[in-house]
Amino acid sequence: MSGPERRTQLGDLIRERRAELGESLDTFAPRAVDPESGTRVTRGWIYRLERGEKITPPVFEELAALAAAARLPIERLQDAAGAQFHGVDPLRSGTGEAVAYVRKLDQLPPDQRDKLLRLIDTLVPPHSSDEQ
Fold this sequence. Notes:
- This protein is an all-alpha fold.
- Helix content is 55%, strand content 0%.
């Protein structure tokens, strides 16, 4: 019996992005600072992340620090962290529109979100596209 699947999406993203930028860990890590809070991510933590070693899952400010150093949108890192640490795979669609809609939906107050979801259900009945 094998253990749970080892997930490394965030570590892979950061390692591959560093390679694209042509940066060593020593040049990348000092730039891993959240511009809002000043939170820093240490070289050792990034090293362990990239190698798939056990680490404490990052909080938002640490993801923002990594995003700043990697010059990537925070959403890319949130998706990868969600997949690696929580087993939540990001939503994908052919055009990318679904992701944009979900992010906007999350910004609505609960009453407006409920109204919108009821409207969508009138256009596309629940479970009509979920049964694959």
